[in-house]
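Can anyone check this?
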Amino acid sequence: MNEKDLIALWNEKRSQIIAAQMQPVLVLIAAFVLATLGYFDKATDSAKYFALVVIAITGILTTVNQYAAIREGEAVCDELAKVAKAGPLAKKIATSKNFVSLTAALIVVADIAVFVFAYMAIFGM
């Protein structure tokens, strides 16, 4: 692939990571609104667990999608590093591999934190 195609692929992977975050954000907004309005206070335990499972599965599926895009983004960084006479943008993207890898770790930490807070909001802790 040439530099232009690799940069286009880089932008596509970044867009995929951003787009993958939309579904869980909507699920979390719904859970936040329900918790804020006190609907979980009156809900049965099975309804609370169902909500928690929906949040967890949505988060897990999103994380899997994000990891796929991150791995591919890392590969794009590697390929851009090999381009002879790369332009400034290609060079900058090529040096982003460590940041992309760090993003993968941060996603796991954020997922765990969100799940803990969702649990606390749903079960009133």
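Reply from J.R.: I decoded it. Residues 45-82 form the longest helix (38 residues).
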